[in-house]
Amino acid sequence: MPVGRRPGSYVCGTDAAMDIIDGKWKVSILWALGEEGVRRFGELRRLLPGVTEKVLAAQLRELEADGIVHREDYAEVPPRVEYSLTEIGHQLNEALAPLGVWGKRHVLGVEPAVR
Amino acid sequence: MPVGRRPGSYVCGTDAAMDIIDGKWKVSILWALGEEGVRRFGELRRLLPGVTEKVLAAQLRELEADGIVHREDYAEVPPRVEYSLTEIGHQLNEALAPLGVWGKRHVLGVEPAVR
DNA sequence: CCGCATCCAATTCGATACTG
DNA sequence: CAGTATCGAATTGGATGCGG
């Protein structure tokens, strides 16, 4: 019932949050879902160059289990499955925004426009 | 000269920042250094239950290489080495704060005090 | 189209012992 | 005290092939 994969072993909230987004493609998935809102599986695959189907599916399932991503299976032929952020997922995305600003500035070397 | 371990392969700022704090103990190290300001090696080891000397030293060296942590070696006998956050490190810590709040609420289940 | 199964490669982390 | 050296375990991710 608790969220995350090592419940009870966190030393701080940041540590706990890191566990949720731990996975090579997870923040990219959040980023991709935050922009448009709803994405199909193949669409996500194209948005994340280099990811394999297996790993993408695995990370989506983990995010779903942690309540970050909603999965809608339309049970059609051919199959159609749509992914979107839950309310908590959107809040996570917002909580990640300052980190993105920091990364742009200090890792990518992009200074913010003007003063 | 660029910071991070996979320069040029980031799709967004958050992704880039994640690379810097990727490592089992790194956010805990940031957290420990953010509280007091200056910590000795053995002090950090005691603050992070379960970390081994080898891994702690390795992650500190990476954080130092990325400009997050400052290492001051006093070249004394017995040895004394002190670690602290750089200015960029402090900014990273601040950028992580919202994530910590989110984690406390949604992973640890701690609601914010009062309304 | 969406995904699972299997096998394999790479990386990371932990345990232990040792050194200036 | 503050590390390094070596080894092995565990986890993660990639490649490929098959299935509803």
Q: Count of helical segments of chain A?
A: 5
Class derived from helix and strand content of chain A: mainly alpha
User: In which order are the strands of the major sheet of chain A placed?
Assistant: 1-3-2
The main β sheet of chain A shows up as: 3 strands, antiparallel
Give the DSSP E fraction of chain A (strand runs of 2 or more residues).
5-15%
Shape of chain A: globular
Distance between the termini of chain A: 46 Å
Residues in helices of chain A, as a percent range: 40-55%
* Average pLDDT score of chain A: 92
The chain pair with the largest interface is: A-B, 41 and 40 residues
Oligomer: homodimer
- Secondary-structure element pattern of chain A, one letter each: HHEHHEEH
| Total DSSP E strands of chain A | 3
Low-pLDDT sequence parts of chain A: none
Radius of gyration from the alpha-carbon trace of chain A, in angstroms: 16 Å
Task: Fill in the keyword field for this structure.
globular, 115 residues, 5 helices, DNA-binding, Transcriptional regulator (chains A, B), homodimer, WH-like_DNA-bd_sf (chains A, B), DNA-binding (chains A, B), mainly alpha, three-stranded antiparallel β-sheet, transcription regulation (chains A, B), HTH_HxlR (chains A, B), 51% helix
